[in-house]
Amino acid sequence: MGLPNKILSVGLLVTVASLPFSPFGTSLGVGLMGLSFIVALATRTIVKPSNKILPGALVAGFIWATFSLLWSDDQQAGIDSLTIKLPLFAAALSLFYVQWNKSLL
Fold first, then answer.
1. Which is deepest, 15, 53, 58, 83, by most CB within 10 Å?
2. 45 near 101, Cβ under 8 Å?
3. Which of 96, 103, 5 is nearest to 48 (CA)?
4. Whole-angstrom distance, CA of residue 92 vs CA of residue 55
5. Exposed e or buried b for every residue in 59-72, given b needs 16+ CB within 10 A?
6. Are 97 and 49 spatial neighbours (Cβ–Cβ below 8 Å)?
7. Distance (Å, rounded) from C-alpha 79 to C-alpha 10?
8. DSSP assignment of the chain
9. Contact predicate 6/92, CB 8 Å
10. pLDDT digits (tens, 9 = 90+) for 4-32
11. Is the pTM higher than 0.90?
């Protein structure tokens, strides 16, 4: 079990454990999941997902949300919306591209 997998597992456990109680714990867990993706990129242990459409759709959705700022009347509300969506994007990327150890989960 590599380092990105350990970080992903801890991030998932922290997120699930603190989801009903603590916004800080949830943010910490999602941040750890994003960190696992960055560590997997740095150590070149990224796995290719078996489904090619879902990661592409995820990236396309985030790009669409970013481009929607162009025709938004309230730019600050649009930027606030993107800051809410960015951790979800990072968590989904880590779930797609970091290898899971199924014995832990």
1. 15
2. no
3. 96
4. 8
5. eeebeeeeeeeeee
6. yes
7. 29
8. --HHHHHHHHHHHHHHHHTTT-HHHHHHHHHHHHHHHHHHHHHT-----S-SHHHHHHHHHHHHHHHGGGG-S-HHHHHHHHHHHHHHHHHHHHHHHSPP-TTT-
9. no
10. 888 888 898 999 999 889 889 888 999 99
11. no
Tokens 């242990």 — which residue? Answer: 45
pLDDT digits (tens, 9 = 90+) for 20-76: 898 898 889 999 998 998 898 888 888 887 777 887 888 888 888 888 888 878 888
pLDDT of 104 above 60: no
* One-letter amino acid of 20: P
